[in-house]
């Protein structure tokens, strides 16, 4: 049942503003859609989540289990931007799971 899904809490930081977000596990297709809606980010995630446009770049802190996983187009896109740190991710490539619990996600401006 959807009501039995765990509640996830994390901090999102955009332009120096901190937002405390609470969301149910799996309630969004990916983190990009959640951040776009919750933070009102107009030009965020322009390619719709395929990992190519790099308009949803984030810095992660405290994410368990997913920081080293990079799928689809993400490694090439981040490499072209000069990012090689595992904590820099495309939010479209991260699912909304309990891995986000207690983490801090910083939106990077491009």
Defining key terms:
5-stranded mixed sheet; Ubiquitin-like (UB roll); 110 residues; 5 strands; alpha+beta
Description:
It contains two helices and five strands, in the order ββαβαββ. By secondary structure, the protein is of the alpha+beta class. It has a single domain (2-107), classed as Beta-grasp domain (Ubiquitin-like (UB roll)). The chain has a five-stranded mixed beta sheet with strand order 2-1-5-3-4, covered by helices on one side. β1 (7-14) and β2 form a beta hairpin. The mean pLDDT is 88. One of its GO terms (molecular function) is iron-sulfur cluster binding.
Concise account of the structure shown:
Helix content is 15%, strand content 25%. The chain has helices at 31-39, 74-80, and strands at 7-14, 17-24, 57-61, 88-90, 104-107.
Task: Please give the alpha-carbon distance between the first and last residues.
Answer: 39 Å
Please give the number of β-strands.
5
Structural class: alpha+beta
CATH homologous group name: Beta-grasp domain
Gyration radius, in Å: 13 Å
- Strand content bin: 25-35%
Residue-averaged pLDDT, rounded? 88
Strand order of the largest sheet: 2-1-5-3-4
CATH architectural grouping:
Roll
Task: Note the total helix count.
Answer: 2
Tell me the major beta sheet: 5 strands, mixed
Helix content: 10-25%
CATH class: Alpha Beta
* Structural domain tally: 1
Show unreliable segments: none
Q: Shape, please? A: globular
| CATH fold description | Ubiquitin-like (UB roll)
- SSE string: EEHEHEE
């Amino acid at each position: 049942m959807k009501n039995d899904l765990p509640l996830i809490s994390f901090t999102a930081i955009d332009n120096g503003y901190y937002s405390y977000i609470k969301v149910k596990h799996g309630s969004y297709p990916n983190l990009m859609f959640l951040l776009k809606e919750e933070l009102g980010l107009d030009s965020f995630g322009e390619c719709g989540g395929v990992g190519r446009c790099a308009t949803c770049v984030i810095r992660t802190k405290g994410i368990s289990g997913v920081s080293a996983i990079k799928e689809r187009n993400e490694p090439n896109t981040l490499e072209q931007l000069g990012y090689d740190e595992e904590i820099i991710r495309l939010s479209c490539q991260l699912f909304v799971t309990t891995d986000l619990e207690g983490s801090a996600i910083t939106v990077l401006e491009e």
